[in-house]
Amino acid sequence: MRASLIQIAVDPAESPNSRRARVASLVAEQRGVADLVVLPELWPVGAFAYESFEAEAEPLDGPTHRAMAKAAAEASVWLHAGSVVERAPDGALYNTALVFSPSGELAATYRKMHRFGFDAGEAVMMAAGDALVTVPVPDLPLGVATCYDLRFPEMFRGLVDAGALAFVVSAGWPARRREHWTLLARARAVENQAYVLACGTGGTHAGVPQAGHSLVVDPWGEVLAEAGDGEETLTVDLDPALVATTRDRFPALKDRLLGLAPPRR
């Protein structure tokens, strides 16, 4: 399987509609190149552009859904389309990831469970999701996580128990904590013996410089590819069999205690 991570640079001068059209073109260009395409967190509006969340919130079938569904079908790829500010029917806002099949059908949604900001920003503006989500991508089932989730290892254990062989983490991670981003992505790969596809943003969100440095980590913790600070596409070949091989040769997961379920084989 071949995966492409498209690290979008968010420019405040670019409107969300213009960015949707531009990103849709970037996804469509992956036809014949990748089987799976991954986008960052909240790229239509910017992960730290809190003042725009209310105005730019959209229903699940809103403009980002329509643009990304079409792009996935044009490229014939599995598309993790990053996340949007979702306005639920009851008016609540969620940070919601959208995953599309190669036919353009909505295959899964994931409402971010761990909201960043402590007592401000996303943590008070958005409701929390309450369900782990996996996507049955052939040969490489994906566990879905978003940005701040990366700091909570118990979530990734749950995704392993649900059958995930790879984790897709979309993010708007700030530059001042870039070392944490790389360290945590590698840690989640090592401790779960799974691929980590971590796709962040470049540019600046509401005055907050972004870390960039999207990366792909293999089940042994080796970094297969890493981006720089700006807009960039990483394309990496993934071997689903490497997950099973790693778990067989170094079977640490079977030694888990504390009453947790053993991972699926």
UniProtKB/TrEMBL annotation:
Give any GO molecular function from the UniProt entry.
hydrolase activity
- InterPro entries (UniProt xref): C-N_Hydrolase, C-N_Hydrolase_sf, UPF0012_CS
Q: Where is the CN hydrolase domain?
A: 1-240
Which family does the record claim for this protein?
A: Belongs to the carbon-nitrogen hydrolase superfamily. NIT1/NIT2 family.
Under CDD domains, the record lists: nitrilase_5
Pfam families (alphabetical):
CN_hydrolase (PF00795)
Record-given protein name: Hydrolase
Q: What is the lineage of its organism?
A: Bacteria, Bacillati, Actinomycetota, Actinomycetes, Kitasatosporales
